[in-house]
Amino acid sequence: MHLSSFFLAVAILPCVSAFYPYSPPVTPSGPDAKRSVFHNWLEGRVDHGDSTEPPTLTIKRTAPRDGIHPHVRNVQEADYITRKYRSRGNSGPDIDGREALVEVERSIQQGTPVKRSNNYPIVTAAQPTFTNSMAVDQDGTDFSYFSIMKFGPRGKDIYMLIDTGSASTWVMSDTCTSAVCKMHNTFGKSDSDTLNISTTPWSVAYGTGNVSGVIGKDTVAFAGLSTPLSFGLGSNISDEFRSYPIDGILGLGRPQSNSLKTPTLMESLVSQKLIKSNVFAVNLQRNSDGSSDGVVTFGDWDKSKFDGDLSWIDSVSGSDLWEIPISDVAVDNNAGKFAGKTAIIDTGTSMILLPADDATKLHSLFPGMKHNGESFELPCSSTQMIQFTLGGVTYAVPPKDYLGKATDNGYCASNIIGRQTFGTNQWLIGDTFLKNVYSVFDLDKNRIGFGKKGKAVNAQNASASSSGQSPSTSSAGPPPTHTPSAAVADKSSKSSLQ
């Protein structure tokens, strides 16, 4: 949504997260369509007291399973993320997403399905070993990552997407009249006597629609912590959110990107001295590894999640995003010569988006590459590794992450899309890459640390397997049974700051 600068200045605080929601045009509505699999359950939390262990927040992953052709999905998702960043003022080329969608639909002679089921299967995870960690559940497709946070003194469960692309946080309001809100948890005066609702307008653009409302403030509890927090209360929610179980966005971007102009979550934790360092760490796990242990850790990081030491990269000077320089990107050691590019690190983006010429150049390093507008296809039998060199260290992305759904004739859609969301030298790096590293975001020193996952992941998977804590799958109906409490876990994991 594009608004005049006058209207922006006088009437609205634009809030843009890096999450790009997708929804087919028509979905079921009414009581029967309300989320059932993602029932309100939390595996428990404990009071830290004087404990030096860092608080840790569960991450959950979900994705729609709707039969959308991979090329159609790629164009739609690229369009959503482009519009959202544009509405915040980030520069880039004008893109006609509708024309691009028509072109790709014509090329595959397939339109967008008009109906899908609001059914979200869950893969339940093994119990983690790190103190104050909670198990990560997902749907098995590594699509989006979210956590349960408790809002208000009575602790209303709200499912929050983890988003390092913005520092703004918002939830769906109980005053929301949009049909989509009937399918989600909402929060308002009926849930909390301490909720303070202001008259300050707030809005965020999401592709074909937007989320708008006012700014509220209340206590939020998560990971054994409790802090007052200002957040957006969305009373008008666009239909894109019909396809996702998330009830809001948790902004973990750099504070400059917080358009609400209120203290961010991290700023609140630091000002109250609830954490010992102004950092947070993110571990995103893939289902195919056989376990699911994604977490967000506040104020510290868990050395058991990666091998060796963290490698730090300073953020790009003057950027309000988590943006770092790229040394190069190669395919099986065939250099792409991408020096001079930068990477915007965004947990709220599932794939990797880069300018069209760069995307073509990168895919040309694969034999048998096919090009379809902004989308690319690679042989499903591809074995090459994509190697990102960042801060002098190389990190590999395997085929199981860069290959998406099968298209036809032995080809799979690439999870790397040729869409310029920012400048000609800026890439948007999402979960396709981040599943392969343990990421630490240092707000005081404006840097990101990456740890390689390999032996640490294999050891944890083997431990889960030997203990019989393998993931299990559930679909609609009663929620899967968890063993309370995941927060009361083994305390043997190493803390980096102890």
Automatic annotation (TrEMBL):
The keyword Hydrolase applies. CDD domains: pepsin_like. It is found in: Cell membrane. Disulfide bonds join 176-181. One of its GO terms (biological process) is proteolysis. It comes from the Eukaryota. Its main location: membrane. Residues 462-476, 483-498 have a biased composition (Low complexity). Keywords: Aspartyl protease, Cell membrane, Disulfide bond, Glycoprotein, Hydrolase, Lipoprotein, Membrane, Protease, Signal. The active site is at 163, 346. GO terms for cellular component: plasma membrane. Residues 1-18 form the signal peptide. Residues 45-67, 459-498 are annotated as: Disordered. It holds the Pfam family Asp. Gene3D superfamilies: Acid Proteases (2.40.70.10). One of its GO terms (molecular function) is aspartic-type endopeptidase activity. Residues 145-451 form the Peptidase A1 domain. Belongs to the peptidase A1 family. PANTHER family: BETA-SITE APP-CLEAVING ENZYME, ISOFORM A-RELATED (PTHR47966), ENDOPEPTIDASE (CTSD), PUTATIVE (AFU_ORTHOLOGUE AFUA_4G07040)-RELATED (PTHR47966:SF75). This is Peptidase A1 domain-containing protein. It comes from Trichoglossum hirsutum.
